Amino acid sequence: MSLRSYKNIKPTISDSCYIDESAVIVGKVECADDVSIWPLVAARGDVNYIKIGARSNIQDGTVLHVTRVSESNPEGFPLIIGEDVTVGHKCMLHGCTLGNRILVGMGAIIMDGAVVQDDVFIGGGSLVPPNKTLESGYLYVGNPVKQVRPLKESESAFLSQSAVNYVKLKNEYLKEVV
Ligand SMILES: CC(C)(COP(=O)(O)OP(=O)(O)OC[C@H]1O[C@@H](n2cnc3c(N)ncnc32)[C@H](O)[C@@H]1OP(=O)(O)O)[C@@H](O)C(=O)NCCC(=O)NCCS
């Protein structure tokens, strides 16, 4: 497992997390209970912090990073991911804030200052521009993303189910002995 310190700050990882050996997690990164981090994820909490809420999963090849504080932006842009969030393969989440029960489709890009409210489904390959807010309960797709329609019941249910599936999957991986 590659957990590295930056300026003497080490990632804080709950014991129930699964962190794939090939993932790289640096500095001020906090992973709450049952978080899973899949192969080749890079999470760099150096010039600001990253927080990942309980039961969220960050899938293969995703990049997580942040923006430093400055005079014009005294908080900078940390990266905050809520609970039960599924981040698909090869996404780029940079300095944005995600609520709870969200699916970020594979290959999506979410930029600084964007806010994704609870219970949102973002289609694969979408781009969420800086400072945009995605409203709770909707499907968004496209580059730049547009609100397409309210979520179907099955999609809302899937948001939580996906997190449950990934907690089960990471528990299986934790039992593997190489
Ligand atoms: C957006 C999504 C939820 C499908 O929504 P849907 O309403 O069922 O969409 P449909 O398949 O009926 O397609 C409707 C239209 O949207 C288009 N479309 C579908 N997904 C799209 C996407 N991600 N981006 C842009 N357009 C998309 C379709 O081509 C279709 O266009 P058309 O009407 O011109 O033919 C799905 O395609 C998607 O992106 N899922 C994300 C899956 C994922 O990444 N999971 C994480 C990995 S575990």
TrEMBL record:
<dbReference type="InterPro" id="IPR050484">
    <property type="entry name" value="Transf_Hexapept/Carb_Anhydrase"/>
</dbReference>
<dbReference type="Pfam" id="PF14602">
    <property type="entry name" value="Hexapep_2"/>
</dbReference>
<dbReference type="InterPro" id="IPR001451">
    <property type="entry name" value="Hexapep"/>
</dbReference>
<dbReference type="InterPro" id="IPR011004">
    <property type="entry name" value="Trimer_LpxA-like_sf"/>
</dbReference>
<dbReference type="InterPro" id="IPR047324">
    <property type="entry name" value="LbH_gamma_CA-like"/>
</dbReference>
<protein>
    <submittedName>
        <fullName>Gamma carbonic anhydrase family protein</fullName>
    </submittedName>
</protein>
